[in-house]
Amino acid sequence: MVANLTDQWTAGREAVRVASFTHTYAALPEQFFARVDPTPVSAPRLIAVNRPLAAELDFDLGTHAAEVLAAIFAGNAVPAGATPIAMAYAGHQFGHFVPQLGDGRAILLGELRDRTGQLRDVQLKGAGRTPFSRDGDGRAALGPVLREYIVGEAMHALGIPATRALAAALTGDRIPRQGMVPGAVLTRVAASHVRVGTFQYFAARGERDSVQRLADYVIDRHYPQARAAERPYLALLEAVAARQALLIARWMHVGFIHGVMNTDNMAVSGETIDFGPCAFMDSYDPAAVFSSIDRRGRYAYGNQPAAAEWNLARLAETLLPFIDLTPERAVELATEVIAGFSTRVDRHWLAGMRAKLGLLTASADDVELIGALLDLMHGSQADFTNTFRLLCDASSAPAAAATLRTHFANPAAYDDWAGRWRARLAQEGDEPGSRAAAMRRVNPAYIPRNHRIEQAIVAAVERDDFSVFDALLEVLSRPYVESESAAPYAAPPLPAERVTKTFCGT
Ligand code: AMP
Ligand code: MG
Hints:
alpha+beta; disordered N terminus; 12 strands; 6-stranded antiparallel beta sheet; binds magnesium ion; binds adenosine monophosphate
C-alpha cells in the first residue's frame, strides 16, 4: 500500500504544498549541480519531526496526514515548489585532494526563508543515488541519522552554530553496512551547503568564472558586508575565517571533536556540518580521537584549530586570482588572513574559558591559570563537562569544592590551583551567587555523551524503540538547566559503557 504513495504523488496527484521554496542555488549555472529526484523507498515511516524548527521555517506539518509527511521526508513525494538537486563539490580528505565528491546521497529540495529573514537549505540526506554517488548506494543508515539528529539539536541548544534536523524517516529498506541495517533519511536544514570543497571543485577545473560566481553567491547569501569592502574577495576570506575561528573555539569550550574536518565538511557559513564520526569527550585529553578512520589523529580535539586553518588556506588558494591582479600581492594579503587565524581562535578561546572559570576581567596570568587546570584534568582523566560544571558550584559553595577536589588524582595539587583561582576571583567585584549563575549559563550540565547516543541508536536499530532517542533529545534541549530527572545524563560512562570508536557509517 505504501509503495503506491510514490505513484500517487509523482504521477496523477498534485504535489503537496508544505512550504514556500525558493531556489537561489539551482539558479546558478548548470555545472554547479545535477538535477536529480530522490529515489523512492519501500515503506516510509516518520520517526522524528522537529516542530520548533518547522515553525521557524513556516513548514506546514499540521494540515497533512502522517503518511504524507512520511512520504515527503523519506523522499517518496517531492513537495510542491521543490527543485531537487545534488550539489557539486570536491575536497581534501585527510590531506588528499579528490577533485570530484559532490552530494552522493544528499538531495537539496530548495531554500526556505526563516522567520528572521535568512535563507535556509532543506536537504534530504540518504535519499538515493545521484550523479555524484560513485560506488555508494546513496543511502544513510539509521544509526548515523540519529547521531546527526541528536548532535545537531544538542549543538543548537548549546548555542553553537550547526546544521539541524527537521525530520528523520525510516525507509523500510535494509542496507548493507556492518551487516544489514535499517535505512533512514535525515532532513537537514543549513544556512547553506556551500563548503570549502565547493570552491575547490571549480578551482581545480580551472573554471575561474565559476569560482567568482560562487564567491559572489556566498557574499550575497552570507557576508553582504564584504561587497562594500575595498577588496570584496579578501573580505570574504576574512569573514569566513572570523566565523570559523569562533566556531572552533566554541567546539573547544564544550569538548566537541568533529572527527572528519575535511575541506568538503567545512561549511563557509560557519556552521558545524557533516558530523559523521563526531564525539564529545568525557575525560579531558587534548589528543582525544574517536573516529575510526582518523588513524593518525589529524582531527584530534586539540588539532582542530590547526585543521581549520589548513582548510582556510585551501579556500584562500581558490580566491587568489580575485584578491589582487598581482599574484605575489594576492598571496601576501591572503597569507595575512590565514596567519591571523590562530590568534583569532585563541582570543575567542580565552574569552570563553575565562567565562567558564567565572572571570569577568582579563589578567595576563589567565592563560597560565587555565592551562594549569587543564593539565591537572588531563593528568587525572577528569570529566571535562562535569569538572567545569562543578566549578560553578565550587565558586560559591565550599561543600561543592570538597566534591570537586576528589575528581583529581592529586587533590592537593587541585587545592593549590583552586587557591590561585579564588584569589583571582576575589579581585573581581561580582557577587558569588550571580557569578555561579553566570558560570552555569556557559558550562553545560548535559552534552550528548557517546554512550548515551549509542544507547539511543541500539534501542532504535535493534528493538525499533525510539523512546531512548526521544528522552535524550529532551534532556539535550536544555543543556544548561539541571534537573533531578535528567541527572543520570550527566554521568560519564561506566567502564563497560565507554565508546572509544565512532564510525561515519557511510
Ligand atoms: P561524508 O563522509 O559523509 O562527508 O561523505 C564524503 C563523500 O562521500 C561525499 O561526496 C558523499 O556524498 C559521499 N558518500 C558518502 N556516503 C555515501 C553513500 N552511501 N552513497 C553515495 N555517496 C556517499
Ligand atoms: Mg561530507
